[in-house]
UniProtKB/TrEMBL annotation:
UniProt entry tagged with the keyword Membrane: yes
Cell location: Cell membrane
GO cellular component labels: plasma membrane
Protein name stated in the entry: Membrane protein
Annotated source species: Paenibacillus durus ATCC 35681
Amino acid sequence: MSKKDSFIKGTIILAAAALVARVLGIFQRVPLEHLFNDVGDAAFSQANNVYLMLLTLATAGIPSTLSKMVSERYALNRPDEARQVYRAALIFGAVAGVIISAALYIAAPLFAKHAGVPESTLAIRAIAPALLLFPTIAMMRGYSQGRNNMMANGISQIVEQIARVFTAILLAFFLLHQGYGNPVMAAGASFGSVFGSVGAFAIMLYAAIKMKRSDKQSGIHASSEAKLPLLGIYKDIFSLSIPIILSSMTIQAVYFIDSSLIVPLLSGQVGGTEATRLLGILGQKAQSIAGIPPVLAIALSTSLIPVISAAYARRDEDHLKRQITLAMRVAILTGTPIVLSLVVAAYSVNGLLFSTPSGSGMIALLTLGTIFQITMTTSNSILLGMGKSRISMFYVLAGIIVKLAASVLLSRFMGIYGIIIATALCFIVITALNLRLLRSIVPFEIMGKRWRGYLLAVLVSGAAGYGLNAAAISLTGMMPARLAYLVGCLAVGAVVVILYLVLLIVLGVLSAGELASYPRPVRKLLSPLMKLQPARVRERE
């Protein structure tokens, strides 16, 4: 298999693993929401967000940095240096795992009390042991990726999610039937992440043993090369990875801020009980639904990042301009119909998946803001691909400051909705700063004169979806409510997506000429529909 084919296959594997992980994550939240009360929802959400924040801090950026360092040394026929780098990374992963896990366990009561949900202490402590292994797993994944073995990484992610999701649900269900309260049930569900870490570690350990045997058979042995100093290795790793870590943690930082501030900010307005209920709705319902749109859009757009990196390295300004435009346009155009469908059908989606449709407005507003999350993440990835991670890091910090300030200010006037709007503002600020920097490197337009057609397609398809959703809700008096919600979801999803795509083509937002440069899945979907484009629109291309 050629290097190009191997890279494409690896990208597909990792994208599929991310998609499976997202679907399983939603699958987990749905049954848990049915099992928990408001306190259980809030406790589990808070523990999960704290854990994901620390996990991102401990692992994001380091695997890709380690991958680069390992692959470079193997390309230069220095396998012993690659192994030294790997061993140093494993030592750091083991030490970091112990420190972070112990710190989280010890600090759990203090954080839970400060965040206004002391019942989450057990859940946070139950999830802490998962951090023992994940830094080491991240190093193993980085080394595996550097050796071009992405299959192991993808399988380990899927096994991790399956083990985490099913043990979380089973433990919560078992504890419920044993008569335990919601704080203990939430702790049981949180402990599922520990089983996930064990499953992922087992897969990566098997892959490492298999790789070692393969090296032995291929005659790749340790040599007598000079030992690399540990401090030098760590300096190389951290100088490259720290900006990437800070640039990658925006979403988890935002969710962590919400988990920490919602109850303290809102208790004085609505009371502690209601504030805890709102935290549970945001964490269990809104954040899980809002996590759906970015997956496909970001996977498709970031598949173009290697091409952008290569064009930037060659100083090919024309090609760079086309590829940045394409990446941003693909991200927006593919993310919009999913965002739109979930926003206009928020009530039906909420009623179908969860125990009650309460909090549908929160789901709709948070999901609406994910279009800016998509543009932020895509533009961040482009900047990282161009080696601009340090500047991107400061933009992320600026966005986080805006999130904190806007949450405090807007919550006084708009309650929970002000906090959700603050999240969108954070994404908008980072996107604007990223685009300003990109345009200073190479001038480009995302849509140009096509914004009018795009907005018209959004308004028309959104209005049609809203009307269908209202009609489906009215059916709840004539049939079981969940059946009516299911009908509404299916109808809205089909009509919004089809109408949106047809309008993009008819209005000339999509052209046949540029379709050839789109990712293959998008081309296969849109090619048959291009016949609907009027001749006068084609002539304007």
